[in-house]
Amino acid sequence: MATEIERKFLLDRTPEELIAEGAFNRLSQHRIDQTYLALDEQQEVRVRRLVDEDTGAVEYTHTFKQGNGMSREEIEYSITESIYEQLFRASGAVPLTKTRTTGEWQGLTVELDRYDQLNLTVAEVEFDSMEDAESFVPPDWFGEDISSKREYSNKKVWKELQNRA
């Protein structure tokens, strides 16, 4: 199982504004629909549909994650559209939808997620080690560090979305 180490920050500007200001160099952009099939405090299983906005290519993934905070175990692999559709329909859930703009800032890959169902934009940065994550000094355009705040986790946001549906 691979380890995912990431930090997450609130943003008060849109990806488009940051690109226009020259703070962020855009590499790609995807529309993401994600639905959780099972989750508890320590584990989650989800499916995603990712549509590349530049090429139109579509990818489907199935992911298992374990843990909370900056460092979590993760297994992710591609699935077919048919399997995705079966799992999505069986869940009966409303997907969490967002636009992910991936880019570069000072040699690091940064993902900016703009959520459709809420007024929320976040930046995520993945690291090779906890030491790198802990020593990272974010740029001025990053907001509050929400890496360990569960109320901003995708699974928590998705659960709230289901309660509203």
TrEMBL record:
Q: Which domain of life is it from?
A: Bacteria
Query: Residue limits of the CYTH domain?
Result: 2-164
Q: Which SMART domains match?
A: CYTH
Annotated coiled-coil positions are: none
Name under which the protein is recorded: Adenylate cyclase
